[in-house]
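job 3f2a | input accepted
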Amino acid sequence: MSSGSGADGALNPALAQRLVDQVAASVAHNVNLMDSEGVIIASLDRDRVGSTHWAAARAAAERVAVRVHPHEARDDVRAGVNAPLIVDGAVLGVVGVTGDPAEVDEVATLLLLALRLILDAESEQDARTARDAIARDLIAGLAAGSLGEGELAARSAAAGGMLAAPYRVVVAVDPRSLRDAASGPATAPAAAARLLRAARAVGVGLAVVDLDGLWLVVGGASEERVDAFRVRAREAEASILDSGLLPTAAALSDAVRRLRALLTAPALVPAGGAELAELEAEAVVASMPSAARRELIDRTLGRLTPRERETLRAVVAASGSVSRAAAQLGLHRNSVAARIERIEARAGWSITDTGAIPRIALALLADRAEARTSP
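job 3f2a | predicted structure (375 res):
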């Protein structure tokens, strides 16, 4: 049944008036829309709303167009054509076009077609909205770890595409929304909507917009189609996060949980995208409460200047090698070694302590997530 009708098949008056306003803009005649009892529920002539139209009542009852010729017109019923609006076998109402039937017969037929197309589009939009809501709930359920294989298959089928192992989840986001997240992602929804159209054009898996990103969840052997979507997403200059193949629903849940965490800490998402396996540390930090991140920053980096933190990033990237860090910074090794000594003195720890490099790496990521320094 169309979105414009209720459980009893009645046409919604508010929608009816909107439909009349839409279609009547293109015709030079008065247009009425009556319910299945012949009561006018929408009209360009608002004074007629609420009155009963005997010709419309007859058209609805007999399911045929009823023409009122000029010599048959009365005060309450004007000359015109009244044609039943039939959708899915049910009479939703009657379309009336005022005028000599010889002149408006074809207009009434065209308006009927236009109204059916509008109602079909609204019905499809309602169905898609419902499927999208199920898909978003499915993603939330996966992130919560509450879906087993059977429920995943059932809920994904309800969302429009049943999933089966092996799974894969791809998230595409506009890198501008990652940069602008602190001040509010003004461009993300529009970009995600464009990516959604691209995903549906490729026709693979479940595609839905969530957290201002386009989520594509795939089951089975769909590598070729996923690659086709990745090409389209790159053409749209999107950043792509890809889980790779996942053997079980539990692995899919873990991947979705980490991806959702990353999208809540956009400073940790590389502008060019990445495989999820490359972002293990970033996902750990993104999953931490903000208060825990700030405590880690204060304990590890709190007394350090931005330049000293930059030096530590180079040392971490070089796996603790002072020589490689110096080369990355374009400095002499001795200069970097001297900086490190000053850093250790100010911070109260040694870079050679057991576990120091991983702890510093996490603190630097937390620093990025909290936007305390530039990455």
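job 3f2a | The chain has three domains: 13-126, 145-282, 290-369.
job 3f2a | closed
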